[in-house]
Structure formats: C-alpha cells, structure tokens
Amino acid sequence: MPATTPATIPASLQIHASDTVGVALRALDAGAQVLGVCLLQAVPQGHKFALRDLAAGEVVVKYGQPIGRTRVAVRAGEHVHSHNLATALAGELAYRSGARAGQAPEEVAGIAAGAAWTWRGYRRADGRAATRNEIWILPTVGCVALSAQQVARQASERHGAAIAAGRIDGIFAFEHPHGCSQLGDDLAGTRALLAGLAANPNAAGVLLLGLGCESNQLDALVAQVPDAARSKLRVLSSQAVGDELAAAGRLIDELVAEAQRAEREELGLDALCIGLKCGGSDGFSGLTANPLLGRLCDRVTAAGGRAILTEIPEIFGAEEPLLERSVSPEVFERAAALVNGFKRYYLDQGLPVSENPSPGNLAGGITTLEEKSLGAVQKAGTAPLCDVLAYGEQARVDGLSLLEAPGNDAVSSSALAASGATLVLFTTGRGTPLGFAVPCLKVASNAALAQAKPHWIDFDASLALREGAARADAQFLARLLAFASGERTCAERGGQRAVAIWKRGVTL
C-alpha cells in the first residue's frame, strides 16, 4: 500500500461549503495557515478546527449538516472537540415524510458501466448467489457449542483433500452462549439470528446441533428457517443419540458430498448482496472509507444487487436525509418507527440516545453522535431506501434495505449475515482483527492503519485522497470482486470467524 506523506495529500479539508469547521488531514501545529485561518492550537490528525468565530450555543456544521452546539464561544483557528462541542440530540422525533416517498427508485448517474464488472460465485437453488461454498454447524444452545467446534475440527481433517482442492471452502462451527434460560423476545431473537444464518447462501449445508432440553428447541428453530433453505439442513439432538460426535460426523459427510457438486459461474453485480458496516471510526472515516462504500453501494444497487445498512443507533442525528430516500410512504413509516424504537430502547434503560461515540472514536477526532452518524450513513451512498428488515429477517428486495440491529461490531455483522449478506464491507479507522460468518473485507480509512496492520486490512481507502475517488473506486471494486470470487480476506486467512447474538432480555 502506498505511503501517505505531507506532499501527497492536502493539509486540511472543508468538506462542504457551508461547514463551519475544517478537518486536519495530518497533525497541524499552532500557527499553521490552513483554509484561510491561523491555527491557535495544535490540531491532531482527523480532528476539527473552527473556520470562523462561533458564539456559545451556536450550531456547528460539518458535512453540510449540524453536528452539535458549542459549549462556549470558539475563536477561528481553535481546536473543536469534546471540550467545546456538545451533542444536540435528545429523544424521539416526529418525522415527516419527504418528497421522495412514493416515487420509484431513480437511476444513479454514471453507473451503467457497472454491468461490465463480473465475479465468479455459486448460484443457489433459490436464485441467490454465494461467495463461498461452506458447511456450517450452528449450535442451538451454548451447552453444545464446544461439541460443534469439535465436530468441525474432525470433519475438516476428514475432508482436508476436498477443502485443499477447492471443492468446498471449509467447515465451520459458530459457537455462542445463548439458547437456554431465555424467554420471550430474547429467545425469539436468538432463534431469528440462527434461522437467518442457516438460510445464508454461503452455507451450502447446515447442521443444526441441539442438546435436547434447551429453550431453543430444534423443531421451533427449523420452522423459522425459510422454506427454500430447509433442504440443505441436517438436524441432530445430542441427548437423543448415543455418540453424538459420530452421528454429527455422518451428517456432515452427507452435506459435504452434496456441496462438492456446486461450481462457480460468472455473475454480475446484480448477484451481490453486501452488508455495510463501520467499526472503530475516526475523523477520516466520513472522508475516505465510508464514501468509498457509498459509491460502491450506488453501483451495486443500480445494477440490481442488494445492500444492507444497519447499526441503527449510529444513524441518530443523520436519519432524516436517509428517511427522505424511502421509495414509499410505507417504507418511510417503518424506517422512522425503527429509528424511534431504538431511541425508546435507550430511554427505557435510563440512557441518553447520544451515549456514543466510543473512546476510540473520540481519540480519532469524532466528537458527537451526530458527527459519527453523518459519516457512517455515507456507507449507503445515495441509493433509494427500498425496505426495512427486522432482526434476523432475510433481505427480500433488490436495492438498499435498513436492518434492525445495534452498532456493536460482532452483533451487527452477524445480523447482516443472517439477513443474507454474503460479504460484509467493514470500514475502520482504528482497526480490528475480528471476522464473521461471511467474508469480511476490512477497509482502512487512513494509510497509517493500513501500513501498521496489513494482516488486518484488505484495502486502504486513503487512496482516494492521494489519487482521486475514481481510481480508488476502480481498485476497490476489483478487490471486492476478487474476494467475492474466492480470494480469502485477511480475517479469513487469520482464522477469525465468529457470530454474536443480540442479548436483550432476562436470563433465568
């Protein structure tokens, strides 16, 4: 990855003409002359500085949108951060349907060339396409999670030749601690997530491994798996057989024999279903990595593919422009209810809706949730909002869908996989090694992270600052399609594969 030097990118940036703050693209010293102001203080990389004098209580604007209010008067050239900027978020809002509601999705200008881009994937019987041809073992309950791992290890050794030859892409067990002593919505959430994962196209075959006495009974779980995916299921209750490991092994052998018949074929962008995720954001996330994903989202959805946006608490303060992109009043109302429902979820726990950003976000230059959200929603580009999905629900229409899930990296990425994403595109300014059930393509917002963690990062989005958005977009799409076609991501090569279930209720 090319190095970033002061000579290759500008020192600072005003993102929108109406912004009252600029962003330092590298660490700036007091006295530096940037964007027509003299800095009165040193400003760390990714952080903000005032472009003009701001009165106490004045709205601060970045991305052309409010990101909070000043705590005190701020002079032009001062560092703007948590010491002098505060959120303006409160509680639920009464959203009004925008002009776009009820209109058909519009063409995205300049994306027609996307039809020429292809990748090689597995076409499943239900018409969806997979980026991997794997066998998954999903335990119904934490009591058999380690057994599931044991079954996966033994089966991987037994079928090592098939894996090495590429006839299957691996055998994986996804452990979790839930499924017992759960009630009501909490149990329903566990079941929804596991049923959704079982339906993911990347799983050519699935063993649902139960204990027998758990709350999350196998029959109820199977009933929630979409009809089209049930033919690839095998089911085993450990308490109902003698040697459960041997019995599970025989079922895995059946699934492997069937999966080996699948072959990759050439597919277009319309066959992609991508999950959009950001984690450990910094001041560059909204400048490089998230806009990169947004342009990719526009390209994929314009071609007839699917994109899923989630992390609902991380659109607070930026939801109104997103809601205005709804294709119908019904989609608008469902999306607005989802956002307000999440706010109520916070308020009912006695927590403010603005309990964000994280310490890592703050260190990276993000001050308020509005600022974080305005950068985060850029992952969804300008595509029309076509559908709203409940946690664990399958994506069912082409275009952009909004999915119910929190911001936690593992929980939201698992939710994306359970809704049918066969690739998760994960932007980060701080970095993480963690990978998920489906391939997770890590996109660094800054070159320093990409250079420090090449074993974590698959693409350096700061290329857009050095060489322009068009070049970055073309290189990113080429890399994405290579990963979709079978090249392993850093997380896959590192053996980082995990799922996490959203725990919301009482444990008995």
What does this protein structure show overall?
It comes from Novosphingobium organovorum. Keywords: Lyase. Residues 19-86 form the SAF domain. Pfam families: GD_AH_C (PF20629), GD_AH_second (PF04295), SAF (PF08666). The protein has 508 residues and is of the alpha/beta class. The protein folds into three domains: 12-86, Archaeosine Trna-guanine Transglycosylase, Chain: A, domain 4; 122-265, Rossmann fold (3-Layer(aba) Sandwich), CATH 3.40.50; 267-493. Helices cover 30% and strands 19% of the residues. It has helices spanning 145-158, 160-164, 184-199, 218-224, 244-259, 289-302, 319-323, 329-348, 359-363, 369-376, 409-418, 447-452, 463-467, 469-484, 490-493; strands at 12-13, 21-24, 33-34, 37-38, 48-50, 59-62, 65-70, 79-80, 85-86, 118-123, 129-130, 134-139, 171-173, 203-210, 233-237, 265-268, 273-278, 306-309, 385-389, 399-403, 423-428, 440-444, 459-460. The strands form six sheets. It has a seven-stranded parallel β-sheet with strand order 19-20-18-17-21-22-23, sandwiched between helices. Strands 1-2-5-8 form a four-stranded antiparallel β-sheet, with no helix packed on it. Helix 1 crosses helix 5 (244-259), helix 3 (184-199) packs across helix 4 (218-224) and helix 3 (184-199) crosses helix 11 (409-418). It is globular, with a radius of gyration of 23 Å. The relative contact order is 0.15. Residues 1-7 and 101-114 have low confidence and may be disordered.
